[in-house]
Automatic annotation (TrEMBL):
The lineage of its organism: Bacteria, Pseudomonadati, Pseudomonadota, Betaproteobacteria, Burkholderiales. Residues 16-115 form the YqgF/RNase H-like domain. PANTHER family: POLYNUCLEOTIDYL TRANSFERASE, RIBONUCLEASE H-LIKE SUPERFAMILY PROTEIN (PTHR33317). SUPFAM superfamilies: Ribonuclease H-like. Its EC number is 3.1.-.-. It comes from the Bacteria. Could be a nuclease involved in processing of the 5'-end of pre-16S rRNA. It is an enzyme of class 3 (hydrolase). Pfam families: RuvX. This is Putative pre-16S rRNA nuclease. It comes from Pseudorhodoferax aquiterrae.
Length: 140
């Protein structure tokens, strides 16, 4: 079962800190942020696959101790799902199972393009930051 995009009021008010991911087959951008400031800070991109990727993610979860995780899920411009949509949703399910934390999905159309247009040196981490700030802006 896939996680549905979070309705802003479905995120408990006591959830204050979040770790976000811009999933990619080879690289996964990471950002950390909080509800109080509604801002996010990019963290180093994870350049690993499979269990090695999850080992690094689990280390970040231990370090930051977020209340929940956020995953960017890509869609076509018209909102239709595609192959990478399913991959990102599978990644979200794996995170939920491995990290035992709530996982919220966010539509991430154009985040990497936006990150590149802003001159980001690490486009994946910057995209994760954009994803998380978009999520935080929509919380009550």
């Amino acid at each position: 079962m896939s996680a549905a995009p979070a309705a802003p009021d479905a995120v408990p008010a006591h959830f204050q800190s979040f770790l976000a991911f811009d999933y990619g087959a080879k690289r996964t951008g990471v950002a950390v942020g909080n509800r109080f400031t509604r801002t996010a800070t990019p963290q180093g991109t994870i350049r690993a696959e499979g269990d090695a990727r999850f080992a690094q993610i689990e280390a970040r979860v231990r370090e930051w101790r977020p209340d929940a995780l956020v995953v960017g899920v890509p869609f076509h411009p018209d909102g239709a799902a595609h192959e990478n949509t399913a991959r990102a949703q599978r990644f979200a399910r794996q995170l939920r199972g491995r990290c035992k934390l709530p996982v919220y999905e966010v539509d991430e159309r154009y985040t990497t393009t936006e990150a590149l247009s802003l001159g980001a040196r690490d486009a994946d981490a910057a995209a994760a930051c954009i994803i998380l700030e978009q999520f935080l802006r929509n919380l009550p």
